[in-house]
Design brief:
The chain has 455 residues and is an alpha/beta fold. The protein has helices at residues 2-11, 20-28, 32-37, 59-62, 70-82, 103-113, 180-187, 282-285, 288-295, 342-348, 398-410, 427-438, and strands spanning 54-58, 90-96, 118-124, 131-133, 145-151, 153-155, 170-176, 195-201, 213-218, 224-230, 236-241, 247-251, 256-260, 269-274, 301-306, 328-333, 354-359, 388-394, 416-421, 447-450, 453-454. The strands form 3 sheets. Strands 1-2-3-5-7-8-10-12-14-15-16-17-18-19-20-21 form a 16-stranded mixed beta sheet. Helix 6 (103-113) links the parallel strand 2 (90-96) and strand 3. It is elongated, with a radius of gyration of 28 Å. The model is unreliable at 204-210 (pLDDT under 50).
Length: 455
């Protein structure tokens, strides 16, 4: 009897006994092609894949051994044809190094008809033909998250002015060689969008003397904006109308200008990274940095990054705006010539509480041409609220030592200075700097932390 009981226990279909919701959750974590294959494990699972709320297709991952797309296309088409009326929470489609096929648009339309909530398209057709973004995406009443990585692409036809993206809250667009008209079609208006990310690159050579492209997008509920366009072959002016904007992150601006039209009063954080100085555009961009900094001057947290001072396109007689509300300031500079800005930032940020200085340069030698001369007058030049200073990428240069000594001297109310050395400094060298820091004049309450050593 005991052996028969053991045999029955062994032959039990434990998978079959799992609750339906557990089965669907487990299978949904797999790529769709693997999830469909699980039907061989149990008869109960035979049609479970028709109820998947997540559909994840990738031609290179799912069918690596096939040299053509026919098997992949057949598989995706059959999954969409045979699935039931269950809404699709996520439809992810990745196709790369392949020829554009009209069926791709039909797949997207099928997902929209099934009430897709998140649409993630990563389509690289190797410049063989433009992918036409279906108009049904713009009017989808269930779509909340849209992620687009497209090359090349166009918008299919004319987009209605009303009813665009009625529920879209998150949009991430990665563009390659973007065209003005297509960008305007896609990015003109979002009634409920809360987060927008625009990035991409262009491999084209810079065309000197080309005209500037301008486009405006409106997003009355937008909270977070991220823009990172580099290598562009012509300047782009982006006008943003987002009265509730709180966070802005502008990376690798290059030939991109961003104008916050009526979008500055609500800003809390701003991060700006300047890149790609181009001599031909110096006159056009002369003074733009100051205008951009004025737009974000009322934020509480500000980060400014530049590799070279010339990347900032500073005018001849430049003056930084006042940063009266900034309580945390981060300066990320790769060339010590940029540190000439430090004194002005300190003078103009009267309520500063936390200062972060980050040296991104790779050079370790003490270049005699690098100078940093602190102002002779130190009285009142540092915010009385400044309690914490963080220095990252310390390399032990003499100009860095002068900077640290200066900051400790004028920071009589400092509570802490943290110094993070670069990777090239040996333990013995760190000890030597530790000893030198001990000799610097500083507030009695100021605690200096250098790696694992504490003063």
């Amino acid at each position: 009897m005991g052996s028969m009981a053991n045999s029955e226990a062994t032959n039990r279909d434990r998978i079959r006994e799992l609750p339906d919701e557990h089965v669907l959750h487990i299978i949904s974590l797999l790529p769709t092609v693997d999830a469909v294959r699980t039907t061989v494990l149990s008869k109960k699972w035979n049609r479970r894949w028709t109820k998947f709320e997540t559909l994840d297709f990738d031609n290179r991952r799912d069918f690596r051994r096939h040299t053509n797309l026919s098997t992949f296309v057949t598989f995706v088409s059959r999954v969409l044809y045979y699935r039931d009326a269950t809404p699709i929470l996520l439809f992810r489609l990745k196709m790369s190094r392949c020829r554009y096929l009209p069926c791709v648009g039909h797949w997207i339309q099928a997902a929209v008809r099934r009430g897709v909530v998140e649409l993630d398209l990563h389509l690289d057709f190797n410049n063989w033909a433009d992918f036409k973004l279906p108009l049904c995406i713009f009017g989808c009443k269930t779509l909340e998250v849209l992620k687009l990585t497209l090359r090349p692409w166009t918008v299919e036809g004319e987009i209605p002015s009303l009813g665009r993206f009625p529920k879209l809250r998150f949009l991430h667009v990665k563009m390659f060689d973007p065209e003005k008209n297509e960008m305007e079609k896609l990015l003109s208006h979002f009634p409920v969008l809360e987060e927008l990310t625009i990035d991409g690159t262009s491999k084209a050579e810079i065309i000197y003397g080309s005209t500037t492209s301008n486009f405006l997008f409106s997003a009355p509920k937008l909270k977070t904006l991220k823009i990172g366009l580099e290598g562009l072959h012509e300047p782009i002016d982006i006008h943003v109308c987002a009265p509730e904007l709180e966070n802005i992150n502008l990376q690798r601006l290059g030939l991109t200008k961003c104008f916050l039209d009526g979008s500055t009063d609500s800003l809390v954080t701003a991060s700006i990274t300047f890149r790609e100085y181009v001599e031909e555009y110096k006159e056009e961009y002369d003074g733009y940095t100051m205008e951009l900094l004025k737009q974000v001057s009322d934020v509480k947290c500000l980060s400014v990054s530049a590799h070279h001072l010339k990347d900032l396109y500073l005018p001849e007689n430049w003056l930084l705006p006042s940063f009266g509300n900034v309580n945390q300031l981060t300066l990320v500079f790769g060339d010590h010539s940029c540190w000439e800005l430090l004194a002005q930032f300190l003078n103009n940020a009267c309520n500063l509480e936390v200062l972060v200085l980050d040296d991104t340069s790779e050079r370790t030698e003490d270049d005699e041409e690098i100078h940093w001369n602190p102002p002779e007058e130190v009285s009142g030049s540092l915010s009385p609220n400044l309690k914490t200073i963080v220095l990252k990428g310390f390399k032990g240069r003499r100009c860095e030592m002068r900077m640290i000594k200066y900051l400790l001297k004028i920071g009589q109310l400092l509570n802490k200075m943290t110094i993070s050395p670069g990777r090239h400094l040996s333990y013995n060298e760190q000890n030597e700097f530790y000893t030198e820091f001990m000799m610097f004049n500083r507030a009695e309450t100021c605690h200096i932390e250098f790696m694992q050593m504490q003063v």
